[in-house]
## 1
Amino acid sequence: MLPSKSGYAILFIVLGMFFISVNDMVIKRFSGEYPLHQMVFLRSAIGMFFTLILIRLEGGWRILKTDQPGLHALRAVMVFASNMTYFAALAVLPLPDATALFFIAPIMITVLSIPILGERVGPRRWGAVIVGFCGTLIMVRAQGSTRGDISIWIYLLPILAAFFYATMQVLTRKLAKTKASAMAFYIQITFVLFCGISGLIVGNGQFVDSVQHPSLVFLLRAWIVPTAADMSYFVLIGILATGVGYCLSQAYRSAPAATVAPFEYVLLPMSIVWGWVIFADWPGLPVWFGSATIIAAGLYVIWREHKLSSQD
């Protein structure tokens, strides 16, 4: 039986994955109308309000004080970079495909836990890491050859996002003494700052006419005033952003990264459902096969982790 602390961490990560699945669906839904930095700015500004409520509940302003500002800044930049590269891919890729490619992240977390956290990874788990990367290559090569209308470089964006995300989560474990709401606050304020600056630079759309690729148009489109109906969706993802930041921070600060990471795979069936119901996207055989390979590798990592822990 899992220790209670690990059990709570897994509960938080599953809940966080559900919030992410809804957030990704909404971002993709509006990717043809609003610029990415405007949606993320609105989401984070709204999320900041609810994050401040969590900070109040967890101890007040004093919990924001830290003696590791550099690591917190790096962690916030990593999650910003992860979001922007992943959402840029969502403007073009089907939701299940982008999610499946992003699932190399738990494998990357295992790898990065070695230099950053000093965790030991034996030859069997290294084998699982290699299998996971092979699954990713299967999807990239197969999709790149069958969907000639999409550049293979677009398929690499979710993988790059996964690397940034993995770095962020390993840093979360390293900063485990910080309250989850404080970690979420640092992320939200980074999003507001960076997206606000992006809006000031490109928000009037002066660069969008010089590009044609959907991902670049998504990044450079002019800001517009949201309709009342659309604003309700932005409020929704603002609330979800608070939940994501809190749940993921709580999960990775409460249990070893190798224990928590594989449970992120619940995001894949959630994304498949949203992709099918909302966008009529259904994964092809290469995505199913590559996803199964990555998930099998991740599940082996978690099984091996618990087996080694039981021997200590």
## 2
Amino acid sequence: MRFRYCPDCGALLSSRVLGDEGAVPWCDSCDKPWFDVFPVAVISLVYNERGEVLLLRQNYISTEFHNLVSGYVTPGEDAESCAVREILEETGQKVEHLELVLTSWFARKEMMMIGFFARVEARELALSSEVDGAGWHRPEEILSLVSSRPGSTSRVLCERYLSRLGMMSATADAGD
């Protein structure tokens, strides 16, 4: 979101050079900048003790591809807590180990994605109402089930997971 008016006082914003940031929206009344804001979401490749990957079916996101667990970071929440919360809410799985893997700009939705690997001990799935189906998949299956769109955060996370397992060539991983 790009501010035109000050969210605090309602004054029309001007522009002011602010160090290395260059020209930024500025409220002369409040004497402060208003930087663009955008949503931040987490996306997690959840794997179990056997190395299988949990893929979701969420028709409101895609009827063509499987998805990884994802969700929006809420105010006051850090990305790690959000990832753990979303995994539990959407699948009923409790995270044993969480690892930050990447950050990625999702241009189509103008949002920042923060990607994780999350290890769980597989237990019975307890799916939320926003998940139409889910299942554990062998690593060699996952690339055929997620989006093949270049730059897809789901795909990049899957490729990095396979690379970690030694299942992707160094050339394929170099583009990340």
## 3
Amino acid sequence: MKRIILIAWMLLFSSIAAYSSDIKNNRELFLKLYQEEKLAYDLYGEFYERWSLGVFNKVQQREAKHVWCVERIMDNYGFDYNTNTIAGSYPDRDIQKIYDDLTVKGCISDLAALEAAAYIKEKHISQLRERIRYQEDEYVVKVIFLMESAAQSHLRAFVKSIRLSGSDYSPVFLTDDEFSRIMETDKTIAGE
């Protein structure tokens, strides 16, 4: 029993350490958020170009605002950052791999593109929920909360489109209950 408790504590500390090494301060947090928002913007633009589904265009327009907001926040904090305007190019290798993998998946069909879009939004919600747990700065908490609210709205839009196509989306990162609560929330992309 003691061994199981020791292993559980070691796993807990290693996951906290992994999170801490990933994002050590607000500058790193916002640089990561910037790349994630840009990834979403670029990905939905790619999907809209390929499949001409209005949901990709609408959400991409929202993502453009999110990228701009994160840039303004970094400006206000005085964080140095380089704006990378090349679509599909990211300094973070993990983000680059996600973009590359989802772009390939989204080329298969319009349904696969919608599933890839829902996947990235669900992943983003999960990441934001994890990140907010470690924040003490009220302003940063508010920003993350608003970003999660927008991500939920986008997830609902993509899942609605998936369902209209006669298919369904199963959550990967969120529990079934968390996912159901998000889907039941009565918000639309226009209300974001």
## 4
Amino acid sequence: MIDTKMYQLTKKQYMRIVWNTLRKNVLKLIPFVLIWGLLMSWRISYLLMVYIVFALFIISFILLFWFALKNLKPFFSETQLQFDEELIHLTKNGSTASWHFLRLKKVVEEEKYWLLYITSAKYIYVPKNIFLTEQDKATFKKLVNV
């Protein structure tokens, strides 16, 4: 079993993660909206397309502020990560949850952290600076297939 340092997700980091995720998803919609606009005749749907893009940005900001104001204290508590060849163990507030590495849906790598998606909406935040040795970090990267 490999242990890591204790870590804690801050509200600022959480807001950055939410914003990056929303931004990437909105950017994926823009080509769809443009093609749809071209297929429906640019003149007729130009105004509608502008309203759709504007609405997506407004909804994104509303969601961002809602998440910021939502009570997420358990989400921001100190966390201990442990892993072995098969399982990843997450200990928070005295309780431990475990997941098989093979059951991870997706792994998103950013500059300072990884997001290990357990479902399409539920993820584990793992900072890159919590590993005690570079070998532990390399083993973790191998297990999550990064």
